[in-house]
């Protein structure tokens, strides 16, 4: 039988076996579920979405604007993420280069002295060489040429790998946007916490004055035998306790300032702020938009979507490894044993070869990669669906929290007003001996706690507006 026919059937058989084997282990990709409810719980949808506002529009405080701007430039973690994007971009170049021909220049030289009593040495010794045409000894070898190697991407293995790298690059960009969202939100939350601490410090200082005034009164009452030493000591202890609370708040202020400085990427320093306006701050009005907007607004959802797309392409690349691969190599150049003959036309050499390679036996590694790619794709589907679910629940929780905190704040305001009036009443009753000192101390303590709780509620309201803004996907555009 003709050898060409044998080679032809061998190649066809190899291809058919590879295709049949690949078909026998074919697996189904898992499809993702992108559906979301039409509403956020019982809340009606808005036509406006606050998450689409840039942070400069959403936050009105100029001091907060300055902090966020500096952080987006100097934050070390964000800058580290920028390098991750560069790494992903370079990965695209690597994948692109794999399906283009590899072309190189080769220059070489060598020297060879064959031993006389060997088969080659014996043949050279017995060869009839004409005078003047003797083979030099030792024999030098000089060569220069261009070579190329190329794997024809018949099944799209290399192209799909490049597309997967592009999707992962886009995923890192979305990861950076998600980091920006969290950074903006964390600075805003810390800033509002700092304003609240300033307000609490002012309340404590005012209460120290009130308690000191009551302390002086009880000492005068003791001198007139209308109060005893126990009352004096209890009032003194209350003043000391409130003074200690003042230093605790000052420490919290320092730590909160330094946390903001860390996020901004600078060493500890005073954080400029508008603390006097805390009582007048009104929580931002939130427009939730449609739940489906989360798919386009949330960077973490888009990141998970890009990772999912990349995992699907990984399956295609892994599957293509079962198919035959076509490799082509070529070279052209000059080679001679003497430099003066190097560029002689008779020294020209060239080559062109192609090979078709298909896995046939012991393909466990290829199967394992294929199954792993499928498992990672299923993981990516679950991660994508989980990210959507998490985003929806975050928005629903924060929207509910806004209403509940507003109701809490209204009631706390009434409680503070009542207890503030009770301080004056209890002091007057104590002076006229119609109330004992414990009632005065208890009223002062309850009023201080209520004021703290009111400030805490206002801070939680402000933080919630930040949290829902982040949950809606806001903060990464400017």
From TrEMBL:
Where in or outside the cell it occurs: the entry states: Cell membrane
Query: Keywords of this protein's UniProt record, alphabetized?
Result: Coiled coil, Lipoprotein, Membrane, Palmitate, Signal, Transmembrane, Transmembrane beta strand
What SUPFAM superfamilies does the database record attribute to this sequence?
Outer membrane efflux proteins (OEP)
Looking up PROSITE patterns in the UniProt record yields: PROKAR_LIPOPROTEIN (PS51257)
List, in alphabetical order, the Gene Ontology terms for molecular function in this entry. Answer: efflux transmembrane transporter activity
Per the record, membrane topology reads: Lipid-anchor
Q: Which InterPro entries match?
A: MdtP/NodT-like (IPR010131), OMP_efflux (IPR003423)
Taxonomically, which superkingdom? Bacteria
State the coiled-coil residue ranges: 402-465
> Does the record bear Transmembrane in its keywords?
yes
Q: Which NCBIfam families match?
A: outer_NodT
- What family, per the record? Belongs to the outer membrane factor (OMF) (TC 1.B.17) family.
Q: What is the official name of this protein in its record?
A: Efflux transporter, outer membrane factor (OMF) lipoprotein, NodT family
Q: What is the lineage of its organism?
A: Bacteria, Pseudomonadati, Bacteroidota, Flavobacteriia, Flavobacteriales
């Amino acid at each position: 039988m003709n050898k060409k026919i044998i080679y032809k059937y061998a190649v066809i058989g190899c291809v058919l076996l590879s295709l049949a084997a690949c078909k026998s282990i074919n697996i189904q990709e898992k499809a993702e579920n992108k559906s979301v409810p039409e509403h956020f719980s019982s809340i009606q949808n808005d036509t406006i979405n606050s998450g689409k506002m840039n942070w400069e529009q959403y936050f009105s405080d100029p001091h907060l604007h300055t902090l966020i701007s500096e952080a987006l430039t100097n934050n070390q973690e964000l800058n580290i993420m920028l390098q991750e994007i560069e790494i992903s971009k370079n990965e695209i170049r690597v994948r692109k280069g794999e399906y283009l021909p590899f072309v190189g220049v080769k220059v070489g030289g060598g020297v060879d002295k064959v031993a006389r009593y060997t088969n080659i040495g014996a043949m050279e010794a017995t060869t009839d060489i004409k005078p003047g045409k003797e083979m030099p000894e030792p024999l030098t070898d000089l060569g220069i040429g261009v070579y190329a190697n190329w794997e024809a991407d018949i099944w799209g293995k290399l192209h799909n790998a490049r597309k997967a790298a592009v999707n992962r690059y886009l995923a890192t960009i979305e990861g950076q946007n998600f980091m920006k969202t969290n950074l903006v939100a964390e600075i805003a939350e810390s800033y509002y916490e700092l304003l609240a601490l300033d307000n609490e410090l002012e309340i404590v200082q005012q209460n120290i004055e009130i308690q000191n005034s009551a302390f002086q009164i009880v000492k005068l009452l003791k001198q007139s035998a209308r109060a005893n030493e126990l009352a004096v000591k209890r009032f003194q202890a209350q003043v000391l306790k409130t003074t200690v609370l003042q230093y605790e708040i000052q420490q919290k202020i320092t730590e909160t300032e330094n946390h903001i400085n860390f996020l901004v990427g600078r060493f500890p320093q005073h954080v400029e702020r508008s603390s006097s306006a805390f009582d007048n701050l009104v929580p931002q009005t939130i427009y939730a938009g449609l739940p489906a907007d989360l798919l386009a607004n949330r960077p973490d959802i888009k990141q998970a979507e890009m990772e999912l797309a990349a995992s699907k392409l990984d399956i295609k690349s892994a599957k293509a490894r079962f198919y035959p691969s076509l490799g082509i190599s070529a070279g052209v150049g000059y080679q001679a044993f003497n430099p003066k003959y190097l560029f002689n036309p008779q020294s020209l050499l060239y080559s062109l070869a192609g090979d078709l390679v298909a896995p046939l036996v012991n393909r466990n590694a290829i199967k394992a990669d294929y199954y792993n790619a499928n498992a990672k794709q299923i993981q990516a589907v679950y991660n994508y669906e989980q990210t959507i679910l998490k985003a929806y629940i975050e928005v629903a929780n924060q929207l509910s929290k806004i209403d509940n905190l507003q109701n809490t704040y209204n009631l706390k305001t009434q409680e503070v007003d009542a207890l503030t009036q009770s301080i004056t009443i209890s002091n007057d009753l104590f002076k006229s001996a119609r109330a004992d000192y414990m009632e005065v101390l208890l009223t002062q303590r309850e009023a201080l706690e209520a004021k703290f709780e009111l400030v805490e509620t206002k801070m939680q309201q402000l933080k919630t507006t930040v949290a829902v803004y982040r949950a809606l996907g806001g903060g990464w555009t400017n």
